[in-house]
Amino acid sequence: MKALDGVKILDMTHVQSGPTCTQLLAWFGADVIKVERPGVGDATRGQLRDIPDVDSLYFTMLNHNKRSVTLNTKDEKGKEIFTRFIKECDVMVENFAPGALGRMGFGWDKIQELNPRMIYASVKGFGPGPFADCKVYENVAQCAGGSASTTGNLDGTPMVTGAQIGDSGTGLHLALGIVTALFQRETSGKGQRVECAMQDSVLNLCRVKLRDQQRLQHGPLNEYSQFGEGISFGDATPRAGNDSGGGQPGRILKCRGWETDPDAYTYFITQAAVWKNICDVIGKPDWKENPDYAKPVNRLPKLNEIFGAIEDWTMTKTKFEVMDICNALNIPVGPILSMKEISEDESLRQTGTIVDVEHPERGNYLTVGNPIKLSDSPSDVLRSPLLGEHTDEILKDVLGMSDADIAEAKEMGAV
Ligand code: COA
Q1: pTM score
Q2: Which of the residues are catalytic?
Q3: Which CATH architecture fits 8-205+346-411?
């Protein structure tokens, strides 16, 4: 048994945000029926290809455990079949440009009329307001959600981050909305509309920066490096480089080999509770009791000097030696791991976070498994479907169509 066994998802998603959401639901056991345009499919099948004519890793890594049916939802016969899917499924998920589902003739009113128990979940770039009609991709959301203006070096341009907080981050939010709506349906008996705007999701992940925006009205942000450097604050939360952003100052520091290895760095947190251990390990025992260094508040204006001394020590060790030594002393540190190192990490394979998958056309590839581990609902990662691989099977077992009906729909170009 899987947690979402028996839940049928009509998956109208494409690219990254929506597919992230439905992949999670599939890992929890839902039957995710990915609807794709005949002969075309999700655009990402053909984007960033590494092997000619083979579904890209972009597609395969976001569409595991799903079944694919081709259906032209703009064609009359296709609409008739789509209507039957709406009646049979529990959830419909989509992330088309604003208004696309309505233009197909399937707005929220129509869906409720067809299936009052249906949960209709959407990702859009923006919520209601001046930008509601805009198409949005990842980096637009990072910029509009406050992430880019608060990321990067103080004297540099705004910076987007590699973590896909706009796309995958919104997909995660949407998945929570869907399971919450399924839970409420248990008592209400009704479906509901679930909407996640990418701008809102990014802002939710940036809420500490909105916290800092308000703190600015009451004085400088003492834990930011620029405080100790005597650089005045403007009227908006600044870019904070690699400052920790929390109550325990932290920085990225060089480790042995940094001259040739771009990832020979560690993140080092000067947690107040282990300050004495830090002083001992870096060879500054006098800082333990010295009133200029002993209390966190006295250290804030001196972070450059303090992290400089710590870096003198970390540069004598590899990032993994720093990890071993500091971990034993309860000092929170973390090696900067490259994607190569992560892909070769045996412990991540053992937990199912990194998974090898066999694909009939591309062979073996690596992917990221379900990061959410349920003890009673383990996630097996199954390869992504080929375009329309399950069309006949789905039309038969979900809609009860006969071979003759299916042949007719194919002849009409609907599937
Ligand atoms: N049969 C027939 N038509 C189909 C179809 C099917 N099975 N599936 C999709 N289509 C149509 C849609 O109805 C739409 O047609 P329309 O514009 O005539 O109404 C069209 O295909 C494509 O939709 P659209 O979403 O506009 O694609 P796009 O490639 O131009 O835009 C995005 C891509 C991501 C910018 C846009 O979908 C978007 O802004 N989505 C919301 C935000 C989002 O999720 N962004 C992140 C993506 S990772």
Answers
A1: 0.97
A2: 167
A3: 3-Layer(aba) Sandwich (3.40)
